[in-house]
Design brief:
The chain has 118 residues and is mainly β. 0% of the residues lie in helices and 59% in strands. Strands 2, 4, 5, 6, 9, 10 and 11 form a seven-stranded mixed beta sheet that branches. A four-stranded antiparallel beta sheet has the order 1-3-8-7, with no helix packed on it. It is elongated. The model has no long low-confidence stretch (mean pLDDT 95).
């Protein structure tokens, strides 16, 4: 599975961005997909995740502002980010989970930079 993110950029506080993640390869085997972010000097953290069944979960810091969506027919996932804050500045990474039997595989994209200016 290969993942490619796009849609990052520079935006003012209060603005919006829409990130996309395009999956290729053995996409039929993907279970959960999610967005993570990593700011300089900080640990990678979960932003939002969507399961194979369509349920979603969000970090408390983004609830009500971010929306994760997934289009299985197009093998894409999106993250709509509204009311952005400077603390949302980070590299955002796409993540996909594949489970084969008892083995769990995790794939990552290269990331896309999101910078929110105050």
């Amino acid at each position: 599975v290969q993942l490619v993110e796009s849609g990052g950029g520079l935006v003012q506080a209060g603005g919006s961005l829409r990130l996309s993640c395009a999956a290729s390869g053995s996409t039929f085997s993907i279970n959960a997909m999610g967005w993570y972010r990593q700011a300089p000097g900080k640990q990678r953290e979960l932003v939002a995740i969507t399961s194979g069944g369509g349920s979603t979960n969000y970090a408390d810091s983004v609830k009500g502002r971010f929306t994760i969506s997934r289009d299985n027919a197009k093998n894409t996932m999106h993250l709509q980010m509204n009311s952005l804050k400077p603390e949302d500045t980070a590299v955002y990474l796409c993540n996909a989970e594949v489970v084969v039997g008892r083995t769990r595989y995790v794939y990552w994209g290269q990331g896309t930079q999101v910078t929110v200016s105050s």
